[in-house]
Amino acid sequence: PAPVILDCDPGHDDAFAIVLAAFNPELLSLLAITTVSGNQSLEKTTLNALRILHACGFRENIIPVAKGASAPLMLPELADSRSDSSQHDVGIYPVEVHGETGMDGADFPLVAIPKVDERKAWHLMADIVSLYSAECPVTIVATGPLTNVALFVTLYPELRSRIRIVLMGGTFERGNIHPTAEFNILHDPEAAHIVFHSGVYLTMIPLDLTHQVLVTEDILRKIQSLDSQFAKNMAGLVEFFRDSYQKIFGFPSPPLHDPCAVAYVLDPSRFETQFIRVEVETGKGLCAGQTVGDFYGRFFVGKPKNVNVALKMDIGWFWNSMLQSLKKANEQ
Ligand code: BDR
Ligand code: CA
């Protein structure tokens, strides 16, 4: 199985990413979860990660959870100038989409709080990656802003050859936090810039793909039919996310972004990708946080291709894997 560290900010869809990553042990070995501020504060995203793990049966610290960055690399000044979300303390928490807890709609019990690893996310990443080699690299699946990953590749450049990165983020169509920007990138564009220039082999799962992966009412019913407290909570997440997406974006059903990045590790052959040059706009203004891709290979002359962009996925296969994983989690 592929060794994986999941760096996330749960987060409704991050919660499903955790389940997909934790319940496919024959294809993916989940070595650790690291958390970052994004959908909510670091404290809340960390608590949410622990709650999800606990809810699907990981009562001990079998999978270490470590906290990372509590703010983007260059915030608060820059982010405030890029958005009008000045009501938030640090960063630009999308409360409208994910609620005050970051996972509104569910009420996961937390009987005993498992301990958080004492290491910072990037140090834990380094300790784990050191045990692997360039021949058997660790995949960092990033489903939140790229702050932790940027710090890791900056502090431990010698370990870059031992990792691959699969990230959910960016868009080449319309944005979801700015007209041309996707949330994970705009939350910390400098971090994204560092990661995109790191030389690490990157696979990007942009909104162009994830907006095709909608949790339809039929899928929601399948989750509900698992008929347990866990299923009720997972369905509650979908319902809250659905209502947000209907209200804000006019989507009939919510897209399930983050598990698509985990799915890429499970079976890359289910995806259609294009290897191109992608740059991140780190300036302010209309296009702040935009991911700019040279799909024709004509415009960024002299700059090597750096990102494997996923544009399509076998969606039937994805839902089959996701629902199987939820079923297994439900049986714990
Ligand atoms: C991304 O932003 C967050 O709202 C989701 O968890 C996902 O990672 C989608 O733009
Ligand atoms: Ca996320």
TrEMBL record:
Q: Where is the Inosine/uridine-preferring nucleoside hydrolase domain?
A: 4-320
Q: Name one GO biological process term.
A: purine nucleoside catabolic process
Entry keyword set? Glycosidase, Hydrolase
Record CDD domains: nuc_hydro_IU_UC_XIUA
Q: Which InterPro entries match?
A: Inosine/uridine_hydrolase_dom, IUNH, Ribo_hydro-like
Is Hydrolase among the key words of this record? yes
Q: Which GO terms describe its molecular function?
A: purine nucleosidase activity
Name of the protein described by the UniProt record: Inosine/uridine-preferring nucleoside hydrolase domain-containing protein
Q: Which organism is it from?
A: Galdieria yellowstonensis
Q: What is the lineage of its organism?
A: Eukaryota, Rhodophyta, Bangiophyceae, Galdieriales, Galdieriaceae
